[in-house]
């Protein structure tokens, strides 16, 4: 479903060149759940943002379901329609109600009828457990509720792949569970997911594979059982000692 | 520390007292220079009864005069038996029944209310403000978005525009528009005036728009783009509505400024409020009264404008 070949992303700030993503290659099969781990600044978020073109990259290629991201013939907006993204800070549109948040892209991009998009939005809100908040503004919701709306918003486009960029890092601890539950449900339903997260429990329980990044390099790519019990890379071992 | 809520009204009372004191001292000051206030001269500059002469169309006789209240219906019969009926003011009637009239003879006058110069000036100021405000908003929106564009030419051009307009006096711009561009392109003075004001306002609106758009967190457009919205769709549906809410106060200030700046187009002989005030003074000699009235009329436009802006602000704040 996702093919990443020799991806390189270089940040050049005032002559200081940093390879945020350094020759990363990986494949994600349909229905697979990837969890990306690594210390902060390891390039895992940049890697994720490269997957839907929010960050441009310098070398390599990314393809989702056969669509080449760096092919000039690819319509970037058509590409992004197939890739849902959930952000650390939710990024809900504050001037719109929850329902409008879910309907905007369906209307503008997918050109769905009012009836169709509202039915879809309400069904998704029920699914993430906040059906009764459809007409509230985001500012009236708790962080956990906002993040669940953000997930529902991304799902409203019927994406083939979902990307999660530290979806629980900005949440109060008691709200982390409700968001992870939604993500688990999605994983069980067979959604292809790439999650950058610090939730080790989630990684252990849900992930099919764990990717470990440090200094832009993909150092380890293994199933969670072997990653958490016997990591091969030294830096992965050090990282696990600190977080577990 | 516990903050006690204090009653506000004594302070508002003090405010009122200060204002009354100012008014009294103003009155005293004018009495020192022995200015004679003649407010009764002012109303005619807002509206007055214009007289219109009613004249006979040809030779004939006054056949009948029918009184209808303060009006009189005069029926004239010419030599061919043709009839002319004129309604005139009873008090202005010059003839009686049986009188001969010649073509062009004054039969009497009719009176009707007509807007005076200050009323016309107010209207001119309103429509010039409105026209240049709407145009200025459009120009400013486009220029502001160009300043944020990825295209270097668009960015450069809009920067040049903003810097040129903000760096030169509006008065000079109006002269250039009227005497130079107006002559070359054969523009009417109103067109030149509105164009100069619109371009002037546009430059400031451009900066307001740019600041507003830049103040919206990048995550908003990233979220929109990640849903498949194009850059312009994301701007239109996500960024601009939020930016508009934020820039409403400076935008309202800009339009209030614009209303006042319209007084400058009087230099190219557009008779707007300030110029009609000046003209009213030359015939009434009531300098103070007229200028106070003119100031009051500008307030009459601007106070509702700022009231409307703050109401809109409150309405948009409902999502906070």
TrEMBL record, chain A:
SMART domains: AAA. The keyword Cell inner membrane applies. GO terms for cellular component: plasma membrane. PROSITE patterns: ABC_TRANSPORTER_1, ABC_TRANSPORTER_2. Residues 2-240 form the ABC transporter domain. It holds the Pfam family ABC_tran. GO terms for molecular function: ABC-type amino acid transporter activity; ATP binding; ATP hydrolysis activity. Keywords: Amino-acid transport, ATP-binding, Cell inner membrane, Cell membrane, Membrane, Nucleotide-binding, Transport. It is found in: Cell inner membrane. Its main location: membrane. It is a peripheral membrane protein. It comes from the Bacteria. Belongs to the ABC transporter superfamily. PANTHER family: AMINO ACID IMPORT ATP-BINDING PROTEIN (PTHR43166), PHOSPHONATES IMPORT ATP-BINDING PROTEIN PHNC (PTHR43166:SF4). This is Amino acid ABC transporter ATP-binding protein.
From TrEMBL, chain B:
It is a multi-pass membrane protein. PROSITE patterns: ABC_TM1. GO terms for cellular component: ATP-binding cassette (ABC) transporter complex. It is found in: Cell inner membrane; Cell membrane. The keyword Cell division does not apply. CDD domains: TM_PBP2. Part of the binding-protein-dependent transport system for glutamine; probably responsible for the translocation of the substrate across the membrane. This is Putative glutamine transport system permease protein GlnP. It comes from Pseudomonas laurentiana.
């Amino acid at each position: 479903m996702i093919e990443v070949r020799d991806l390189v992303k270089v940040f050049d700030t005032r002559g200081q060149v940093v390879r945020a993503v350094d020759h990363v290659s990986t494949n994600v099969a349909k229905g697979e759940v990837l969890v990306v781990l690594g210390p902060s600044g390891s390039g895992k978020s940049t890697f994720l943002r490269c997957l839907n073109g929010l960050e441009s990259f310098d070398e390599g290629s990314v393809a989702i379901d056969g669509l080449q991201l760096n092919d000039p013939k690819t319509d970037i907006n058509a590409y992004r329609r197939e890739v849902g993204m959930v952000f650390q800070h939710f990024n809900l549109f504050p001037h719109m109600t929850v329902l409008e948040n879910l309907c905007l892209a369906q209307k503008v991009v997918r050109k769905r009828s009012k009836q169709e998009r509202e039915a879809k939005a309400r069904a998704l809100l029920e699914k993430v457990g906040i059906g009764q908040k459809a007409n509230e503004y985001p500012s009236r919701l708790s962080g956990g509720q906002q993040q669940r709306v953000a997930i529902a918003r991304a799902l409203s486009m019927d994406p083939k792949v979902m990307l999660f960029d530290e979806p629980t890092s900005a949440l109060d601890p008691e709200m982390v569970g409700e968001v992870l539950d939604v993500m688990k449900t999605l994983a069980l339903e067979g959604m292809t997911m790439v999650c950058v997260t610090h939730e080790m429990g989630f990684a252990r329980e849900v992930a099919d594979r764990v990717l470990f990044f440090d200094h832009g390099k993909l150092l380890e790519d293994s199933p969670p059982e072997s990653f958490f019990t016997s990591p091969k890379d030294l830096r992965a071992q050090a990282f696990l000692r600190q977080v577990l | 520390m516990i903050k006690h809520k204090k009653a506000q009204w004594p302070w508002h009372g003090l405010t009122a007292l200060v204002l009354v004191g100012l008014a009294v001292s103003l009155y005293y000051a004018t009495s020192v220079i022995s200015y004679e206030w003649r407010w009764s001269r002012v109303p005619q500059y807002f509206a007055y009864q214009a007289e219109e002469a009613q004249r006979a169309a040809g030779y004939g006789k006054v056949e009948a005069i029918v009184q209808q209240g303060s009006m009189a219906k005069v029926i004239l019969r010419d030599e061919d038996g043709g009839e002319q009926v004129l309604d005139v003011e009873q008090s202005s009637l010059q003839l009686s029944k049986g009188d001969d009239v010649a073509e062009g003879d004054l039969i009497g006058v009719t009176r009707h209310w007509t807007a005076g110069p200050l009323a016309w000036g107010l209207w001119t100021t309103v429509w010039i403000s409105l026209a240049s405000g709407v145009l200025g908003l459009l120009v400013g929106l486009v220029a502001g978005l160009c300043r944020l564009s990825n295209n270097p030419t668009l960015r450069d051009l809009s920067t040049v525009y903003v810097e040129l307009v903000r760096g030169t006096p509006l008065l000079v711009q109006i002269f250039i528009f009227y005497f130079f561009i107006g002559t070359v392109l054969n523009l009417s003075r109103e067109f030149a005036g509105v164009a100069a004001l619109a371009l002037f306002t546009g430059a400031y609106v451009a900066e307001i728009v740019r600041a507003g758009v830049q103040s919206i967190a990048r995550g908003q457009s990233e979220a929109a783009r990640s849903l498949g919205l194009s850059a312009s769709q994301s701007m239109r549906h996500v960024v601009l509505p939020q930016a508009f809410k934020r820039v409403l106060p400076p935008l309202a200030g800009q339009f209030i400024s614009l209303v006042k700046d319209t007084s400058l187009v009087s230099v190219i002989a557009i008779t707007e409020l300030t110029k009609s005030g000046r003209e009213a003074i030359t015939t009434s000699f009531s300098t103070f009264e007229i200028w106070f009235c003119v100031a009051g009329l500008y307030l009459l436009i601007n106070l509702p404008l700022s009231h409307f802006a703050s109401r809109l602000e409150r309405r948009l704040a409902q999502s906070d």
